[in-house]
Amino acid sequence: MSFRVISRDVCSSLVWDTIEEPDVDFDEFVELFSKTAVKEKKQPLSDTITKSKAKQVVKLLNNKRSQAVGILMSSLHLDMKDIQCAVLNLDNNVVDLETLQALYEIRAQQEELDKIEKHIKSCKDKDNSKPLDKPEQFLYQLSLIPNFSSRVFCILFQSSFSECMSLITRKLEILQRVCKTLQESETVKKILGLVLAFGNFMNGGNRTRGQADGFTLDILPKLKDVKSSDGVKSLLSYIVAYYLRHFDEDAGRETCVFPLPEPHDLFQSSQMKFDDFQKDLTRLRKDLRACTSEVEKVCKVSDEDNLQPFKEKMEDFIAQAKTELETLDIELGSTHKLFLELTVFFSVKPKAGEREISPNTLFSIWHEFTSDFKEQWKKENKAILKERLKAAEECFRQAKEKASYSVKPKHASGIKAKLGMKI
C-alpha cells in the first residue's frame, strides 16, 4: 500500500498536526501483510536429468515399464534433493504422501537395479559408451537415496496405520452408540410398548397371542403392512402418530428429536462383522512388526548423519502404535460383549448356519423398521405443524375480530329523557 504524500503548507493547519504515530508491535502485522516470496516454479523432474547428446541411449527397461516411469517423471515438478529431504527427514511439506506412494511403487526392483549398475560399471572406463535412458537414470538416482525403500515403507505405513485405526474406532463408536440406544433409550421402550399394547389388543380374542409379554423383532418391519379397515392408514403410521401426539411434547416443532437410532447408523452397523475387525487388527499387528523390522534395519546400516530424525520419530510411532492396538483390542472386546448382551436383551436367535448372531441379523431388522418409522414420523410432524399453524391463525383471527368489535352507547329514549331535553 503506497501513501499519497500530502505536502504541508506552513500557513495551514492540518489534521496531521494533531496526530502522532503510536508505538506498535509490528510482529503480527509483518506476518499478515508482508509480501510473500514468489514460489519458484519447478520444472518437471524429467527435465532435471541431463539429456545425453548421443543419438543412441541404452534402454534396460521394457517399453511399458519405461513409459510408466517416464510419465511419473514428467508429472512431478520436483528436484531429486526434494525427494531425498522428504525421505530422510520425514517431511511431507514439499513431497506429499501420495507422491511418495507413487515413487515407492515405481522404484527399481533388484533385478532392474542390477542391470543398471552393471551397465554403469561397464561404462566407467569407456569414452564412447552409450548413456542410460532417462527412466533408467531416474530409477538409479532414486536408489542412491539411503535406504529409500525401507524408509518410505515406514513413512507410508505410519500414515495408513493412523487412517485404519481411525476408521475402526469410528465404526466401533457407531456400533456402541446403536447398542446403547436400543438397550437404554426410554423412547425406544415407549415405542416397543405401544407396538405390544396395540398388538395385544388386536389379538385380544386369541388366547395364544392375545396377552403376550413381548414379541420377536421380526414383526417390526411388518407393521406397515397391517392396514386399517378403510385401507388409508397402516398400523405403523398410527403408532407413529399416537407416539407423537401422546408422548412427545415437541411434536411439530424444530426441537422434535427422532426417538429411535438413526437408520444410517443402523445400516452401517448391519454391515459390520466382528471377524473383519479381528482380521484388521491382525493385519495391523503384522504390518507393525514388518515396520519395526525395517526401522531396525535402517538404524543398523545408516550413517550417523542420516540416522535422525528417522530413528527417533519411528521409534516413538512404534511405541504409540503398540499401545493404541492394545487399547483398540480391549475396546473391540467390550463392544462385542455389548452386542451379545443386546441380542439376549431382544431374544434374538442366530440364523441357520451362524455360529453366533451377526450384527446383520439384528440390525437389518431395526434398519428397515426405523427407515419406515422415520418416513411416517416426518409426515406426521408436518401434519402436526400444519395443525398448530392453523390453530394459531384461528386464535389470531378471533383476537382481531374481538379487538375490532366496538360497543355503541345506548341513548335514552323514554318520556323522562324527552322532558329532560326540553328543560
What does this structure look like?
62% of the residues lie in helices and 0% in strands. The protein has 423 residues and is mostly helical. The chain has a domain at 45-153: Methane Monooxygenase Hydroxylase, Chain G, domain 1. The termini are far apart. Residues 374-402 form a coiled coil.
Key structural traits:
0% strand, 423 residues, extended, mainly alpha, Methane Monooxygenase Hydroxylase, Chain G, domain 1
The CATH level-2 architecture of the domain at 45-153 is identified as Up-down Bundle
Q: Please estimate the helix content.
A: 55-70%
- Under the CATH scheme, which class of the domain at 45-153? Mainly Alpha
First-last Cα distance:
93 Å
Q: Shape from CA axes?
A: extended
**N-to-C order of helices and strands:** HHHHHHHHHHHHHHHH
C-alpha Rg (nearest Å) = 39 Å
Helices, by number, come to 16
The largest sheet, given as strand count, sense and whether it forms a barrel, is: none
| Amount of beta strand | under 5%
The overall average pLDDT, rounded, is: 86
Give unreliable regions as ranges.
none
**Structural class, judged by helices and strands?**
mainly alpha
Family: Belongs to the formin homology family. Cappuccino subfamily.
Domain FH2: 1-399
Pfam families: FH2 (PF02181)
GO cellular component, one term: actin filament
Task: Please describe the topology of this protein.
Blueprint: H1 27-33, H2 45-48, H3 63-75, H4 80-89, H5 97-106, H6 110-122, H7 134-143, H8 148-184, H9 186-202, H10 235-247, H11 263-270, H12 274-301, H13 304-307, H14 310-345, H15 359-404, H16 415-422
Helix pairs in contact: 3-7, 5-8, 8-11, 8-12, 8-14, 9-10, 10-15, 11-15, 12-14
